[in-house]
Design goal:
Length: 415
Amino acid sequence: MNMKCKTFQANLDAYIDSELDADTRKAMEKHAAQCEDCARLLDNALTLAGICAEMNEGLEMPKACKAAWREAIHQQNDMRSRRERRHSSRRNMFVRAASALAAVLVLAMAVGSQTDLSELVSNSRGAGYSKSASVSAYDGGAYSGGLEYALSSYESVPVSGRGEGVTLQSDGSAGTDLSVGTAAQASNVMIIRSAVRAIRTANFDSDQLIVNDLVSEYGAYYESKRISGQSQRQMDAVIRVPSDALDRFLSAIDVVGTVTVREDRADDVTDEYVDITARLNVLRAELEQLNAMNDSAANVSELIEISERASAVTAEIESYESRMKSIESRQNYSTVTLTLSEYAQVSDMPEATLTDRMKEAFSDSLEWLRNFGKDAAVFAAALAPRLVIWIPVAIIVIILLKIAFGRRKRRNKGN
C-alpha cells in the first residue's frame, strides 16, 4: 500500500492515539522509513505525546472536585429522567386512565370482602389492649416457697428511663401505661436502611480506586472486602455508610460502571426497639427488688434462690442490651452490599458477508421449523385424548343438523 504525504499527515493524530487498524499503521511506518519529512513529523509528534504523558504523572483530582463532578452527573441524569417521564406520561395518558378505571372497579369489588376483615381486625385490637398492657417479668413464672412470699411483700416499683409508664407489680407482672407507651413509640421511630448494588465494569482497577475514594470521602468503612478471579476479577464488599450520607453515597456509586442490580430497603424496627426497652426496664426493676431482698433473706435456702434468679435476670439484661446496641448501630450506619464485576471489552467484529448472513438466516429457519415440528407433536399428543370425546360429539351434531335441514327442505318442497 503506497501512501502519500498528505494521507500520512491526515492520519498522524489517529496514529498517536492508537486508533488505526494494523494495515494502516504498517503503511504509515513504511512511508516514514522512505520519506524524511514525514519521519521528522512522526518523531516530533511522538516526543510531544511522551512529554504530555510525563506531565500527567502524579496529578490527582481533589476529592471535592470528584464529588462535585459526580453530583453534577447525578443531577443531569435526574433531569433527563424527569424529561423522559414527562414525555412518557403524555404518551401513555390513555393507558393510565384505563388502569385507574380498572383499579377503581377492583377496589369496588373488594370493599365487600374487606368489610368483615376490617371489623375483625378492629375488634381484635380493641380486645387485645388488656393483654398487651402487661409484660411478664420473667419466663419462669411465679416463684415457690419463701421467694414468692418475699416478692409479694414488696409494693409496685415504678420504672424510670425510656420506658416510662412500666411498673413491676407485686405479683411479678409488668403493668404498662398505654398512653405513655404509645406516645413514646410514636416519637422514637427506628428505621434501618440498607442497599444492594451489583456493578459491571471494563476498568476494574480504576473503578475500584473510585469506590475506595468514595468510602473515605463519605466517612464509611469496609466491614468485609474480598477480591477473586484473575482474567475477570470480582470484588465482594460489605460497606457501612453513615445513614445521613447514604443517599449521596449511592448516587456516587451508581455512576461507577454499569449497575445491573439496584435494591434499596428501609425496615421499621420501632416495635422491636420499644419492646426491648420495656423488657429491659422490667428486668432492671426486678433486679433492684432482688438486690433489696438479698439483704433481708430469712434463711440460706431463700438466699440461694434469690441469687440464682438474680443471675438469670442479669443474663437476660445483657442479652437485651446487646440487641439494643445492634439496632442502634444498624440505624446509625447503613449497610451497602456491593459486587463489582469485571468484563472483557469485546473487539469490533468484522462485518458479515452476504453469504454468511444467508447461511445464518437459513440455519435460523431450519431451527424454527424443527422447533415448530416439536411443538406440533406435543400439541397433537395433548389433543389426542380429547379427540376421543370431541369427534363423536361433532359427528352427532353434524348428523342432527343434516336431519333438521333435510326435513325443512322437504317441507318447503311440499308447500
